[in-house]
Amino acid sequence: MAHHNTILSQILRLTPRHEFKQLSIQHDGKRRSDAMSRWTQFVAMAIAQLSGRSSLRDIEPAIHSQKHLSYHLGSGPIKRTTLGRANQDLDFRFYEALFSKLYTLCQKQSGQHRFRFKENSFPWTAHFSTCQ
d(Cα 50, Cα 14) in Å, to the nearest integer? Predict the structure, then answer.
């Protein structure tokens, strides 16, 4: 059976996995082998964001409905309680650093077109003042 890349996998491919892993090690250190990985958390939250899910109870069935695609996304199993615990316990500064890396990557690839967020566009931009 032929494999076709999903749009989600194409979007996730824009995130450099080696830099993602380095940031994860830098921010989380050595974690238990049975703990949810940062990549699995990231995939779950990307699915939630892109599909407009509003709660953990809403995210879990959406992900499980396409369970066969988890392997191709490099994601592990996702349970509501584990995702909730990961969102609560893992340091949010990881995502600030990831955003900064992706923002820098976008600026390099944009060429002569300026890629910039307006400061008042998003409520969380105060956290990313070092990116501009």
Answer: 15
